[in-house]
Design goal:
Elements (H helix, E strand, L loop, with lengths): L1 E10 L2 E11 L4 E5 L6 H9 L6 E6 L5 E4 L11 H6 L3 H19 L6 H19 L2 H14 L16 H15 L3 E5 L7 H13 L3 E5 L3 H7 L2 E6 L2 E5 L3 H36 L6 H13 L26 E12 L2 E12 L3 E6 L5 H9 L6 E6 L5 E4 L3 H4 L6 H6 L10 H7 L16 H10 L8 E5 L7 H13 L3 E5 L3 H4 L5 E6 L2 E6 L2 H7 L6 H21 L4 H40 L10 H36 L3
Parallel strand pairs: 3-7, 3-8, 5-6, 6-7, 12-16, 12-17, 14-15, 15-16
Antiparallel strand pairs: 1-2, 1-4, 8-9, 10-11, 10-13, 17-18
Length: 653
């Protein structure tokens, strides 16, 4: 289907890819693996046509279509989630616009006997037929199913894309690619912004996908569950294994052992031949044999063994000072942003030496609770406190915002290092693969993996007894993750890890706190114990139940309210207008309540009033504001009731 032919990629005097060739066949599930910087992302860009190779070419079957998800994307604002995802069907949307126009013309015109009216009816019939042939009537259902699978809720469909974080916007882009159903899907780190449930859904989707898939991922479980072929990019070359990732690791070890044995045998033969030539070169009686051996040696095709990339992190966390028995405790903890309650009445206790994981869907409050614990956020109600002599090392998910991009790697560490450990800065940076001139790189030019390693290196410069790590493995390659995992296993302090990487958590944590539906529930045991106890293999069953319930509700609503396409579009417009009015109402309430809060202070301290204001005037204004807020709240309730009724009629809830 797609052929990579002798592709070279060079930058200056450095060859990133060296004459690589391989084929991508229909239904292939290829995992593209290798260390960070090996050229995997570059190869995907070349396959998609975004980047040209220095030499060589990519050829494909005529009519082949490709979809590409990059590590960083741009989603234009100004549309709802549903509208943006539906752009995957741009040709169908054009048909629907034409149908809407023609439907309006046919229903409003009265010149029924004219030729022009007949042509309008005929045109509408043709477009409607083509729309039905491409499955236009079911496309909205496909969009909804895909968005639900990727973790969106129905109420999110009418929200603007600008309201979502980068991770959720990445999901919208992924949904568009999946909905386009290209012959070949290219995915660069698709699981970085997905939670466990969404990863499981994507695994199922890609396994059943009728086209080919080439993906880069550092999630071993994801690779094993999706791929049936592994292409390794190592030091400019590729090695193709018809196997999933785990089997590839075994085959790779066997291949290298065979290469080494053949190389050593040939090397011994060459050394013996050269020894014979050197010993008998000067003897006339052996001249014929010597010349024969020389010719034989010239014809030998010298074997080479694959140069092995032996660079790897070599890290060990400093010994943890002793803390109190209770390291972190939360009581009746609630956190809300405005009217949105993230979680409520959370009670947890983490004791010395425990290694726990925070798991759950994105947006359920895992990172929020971590930030409250380290003092970055304040609780709405209740409290979270650290125990006696607890020293916290915190790895934040948003490392890009926390490090100065204009500082070098060395300066970033030198800025926090104190005492004798400053003499070991280069050694510690070397352990995290920052060697030689790498330490002089500006932070802003580092890759995602390099920034993660640098942020982790910062934790080496003080002996902490509590590590709170929020998605520490994002952008790390598999080898680096394994080394970090082993270092954390040997760490003798207490640890809280927020992660969606099942293989990373397996064997590392012995307790989990599940964030779900605004509550936090404790589970003893490891990640797979947790999944097994809940009788859902990696949470697939829960996802199916959720989608089934939502689909059943939508089907029921649709059955009761069989709306035409035009009616659905019109109702969506009405709902958006009501949502806008609700938002405006909330802003007015917030402004009025801020004024009331100021007057509360004035009434408590009458001496602060201005000379032109009497207490009675202030109080009268205070009462007016209170009355206005009551009216606005009544309007807000009515608007929300109207919205719910419209959404029920529309089939959204």
């Amino acid at each position: 289907m797609v052929s990579v032919n002798d592709v070279w990629v060079s930058f200056g005097g450095f060859d990133l890819l060296k004459g690589i060739s391989f084929m991508i066949n229909p239904r292939d599930r290829i995992g593209l693996v290798g260390r960070n910087g090996a050229g995997k992302s570059t190869l995907l860009k070349i396959l998609y046509g975004m980047q040209k190779p220095t030499s060589g070419n990519i050829s494909s079957v005529s009519g082949s279509t490709l979809g590409y998800l990059a590590q960083t994307i741009e989603v234009k604002d100004g549309r709802t989630v549903m509208e943006e995802a539906s752009l995957a069907f741009s040709d169908v949307l054009e048909m629907e616009k034409e149908m809407e126009y023609l439907s309006h013309e046919v229903s409003t015109r009265t010149d029924y006997e004219s030729d022009e009216y007949s042509k309008l009816v005929e045109r509408y019939s043709d477009v409607n037929e083509r729309h039905a042939m491409v499955g236009g009537a079911s496309l909205e259902g496909e969009v909804e199913k895909t968005l639900l699978g990727l973790g969106f809720e129905r109420k999110d469909f009418v929200r603007q894309t600008s309201e979502f974080s980068g991770g959720w916007r990445m999901r919208i882009e992924l949904a568009k690619i999946l909905l386009q159903r290209p012959n070949l899907i290219l995915l660069d780190e698709p699981t970085n912004h997905l939670d466990i449930e969404s990863i499981q859904w994507l695994e199922d989707y890609l396994t059943e996908y009728p086209g080919a898939v080439v993906l880069i991922s550092h999630d071993r479980a994801f690779l094993n569950n999706v791929t049936n072929r592994t292409v390794e990019v190592v030091l400019g070359k590729v090695h193709d294994y018809k196997a999933s990732y785990s089997h590839y690791m075994e085959l790779r070890k066997e291949r290298r052992e065979q290469q080494m044995a053949a190389y050593l045998n040939q090397r011994k033969m060459i050394e013996d031949t050269e020894d014979f030539i050197n010993r008998f070169r000067s003897k006339a009686t052996k001249a014929v044999q010597v010349q024969s051996r020389i010719k034989q040696l010239d014809k030998v095709e010298r074997l080479e063994i694959d140069e092995e990339d032996t660079s790897a992190m070599n890290i060990k966390f400093p010994a943890a000072p002793r803390s109190g028995q209770v390291v972190m405790e939360a009581e009746d903890l609630t956190k809300a942003f405005g009217k949105h309650v993230v979680f409520s009445d959370v009670n947890i206790k983490i004791e010395r030496g425990e290694k726990v994981a925070f798991v759950g869907r994105n947006g359920e409050g895992k990172s929020t609770l971590s930030r409250i614990a380290v003092g970055d956020l304040e609780a709405t109600k209740g409290f979270a406190k650290m125990g006696h002599n607890v020293l916290v090392g915190y790895f934040a998910q948003n490392q890009d915002d926390l490090m100065d991009g204009n500082m070098t790697v060395f300066e970033t560490i030198d800025d926090i290092a104190v005492g004798d450990i400053r003499t070991k800065i280069r050694d510690i940076l070397g352990a995290f693969l920052f060697r030689g001139s790498d330490v002089d790189k500006k932070v802003k030019v580092l890759s995602g993996g390099e920034r993660s390693r640098l942020a982790m290196a910062k934790l080496m410069f003080q002996p902490y007894n509590l590590l709170i790590l929020d998605e520490p493995t994002n952008h790390m390659d598999i080898v680096s993750k394994d080394i970090l995992k082993e270092a954390l296993r040997k760490y003798d302090g207490t640890m809280i890890i927020v992660s969606h990487d099942r293989e990373f958590l397996d064997g590392l944590v012995d307790k989990l706190f599940e964030f779900r539906g605004g509550k936090v529930k404790e589970h003893l045991g490891g990640i797979y114990d947790f999944l097994k106890r809940r009788k859902m293999e990696s949470l697939k069953e829960l996802e199916r139940k959720t989608v089934a319930q939502q689909t059943e509700s939508a089907a029921k609503s649709t059955g009761e309210n069989k709306l035409s396409y035009a009616e659905r579009k019109e109702m969506d417009k009405v709902i958006r207008k009501v949502v806008t009015r609700i938002t405006d109402c909330e802003k007015k309430i917030e402004a009025k309540e801020a004024e009331i809060a100021k007057i509360d202070i004035l009434l408590a301290n009458p001496e602060q009033n201005t000379p032109n204001q009497s207490v009675s005037d202030v109080f009268r204004h205070y009462q007016e504001l209170k009355h206005e807020v009551e009216g606005l709240l009544a309007d807000w309730e009515l608007l929300n009731s109207e919205k719910e009724k419209l959404e029920q009629e529309r089939g959204i809830i």
